[in-house]
Amino acid sequence: MAIFLPVVLTIDIIKRVTDAASQEAIEFTVDEQLNIKKLMTKLSILHGLITGSLVLSLLFIGQYNFSKDYKLDATAMAVVVGVLAGILSVVFVYLPVWRLRRWMCRRTQTVTVDLQQ
Questions:
Q1: pLDDT, mean of residues 25-44
Q2: What pLDDT, on the 0 to 100 scale, is given for residue 108?
Q3: 112 to each of 24, 34, 105, 107, 117, how far by Cα in Å?
Q4: Which terminus of the chain has a lower count of CB atoms within 10 Å, N or C?
Q5: Which residues contact 30 (CB under 8 A, 6 or more apart)?
Q6: DSSP of 17-43, one letter per residue?
């Protein structure tokens, strides 16, 4: 979950935002020079590796610090996994949009007024 959730959310959110910008559903437009597939691939791999390594290191630290007689409580682990999934979901919805803002700008409309009567 720690690797799969950030990867899928990063790809999905960037795709949804760029599709909405191309359909003019939002007031922002994405720079045409941006290679969206390269950005999605780079960010999703980066997010998955960072999150996976953080969770793995926390598991190793927990394994090292707990005593030999400690047994995992299923209820506590379910709560921890649920809270972790919620935190990851919130973070990886906002983080790709925050990174994509660098290549976004507001859509402008040109209004011409004819003053001749």
A1: 84
A2: 65
A3: 21, 31, 22, 17, 15
A4: C
A5: 17, 18, 21, 22, 36, 100, 103, 104
A6: HHHHHHTT-SSEEE-TT--HHHHHHHH
Each residue of 66-82: pLDDT tens digit? 777 777 778 888 888 88
Query: How far is the C-alpha of 73 from the C-alpha of 71, rounded, in Å?
Result: 6
Residue 109's pLDDT is what?
Answer: 64
The Cα 20–Cα 36 span in angstroms is: 14
Segment 41-48 mean pLDDT:
92
Q: Find, among 97, 96, 99, 92, the residue nearest to 26 by Cα.
A: 97
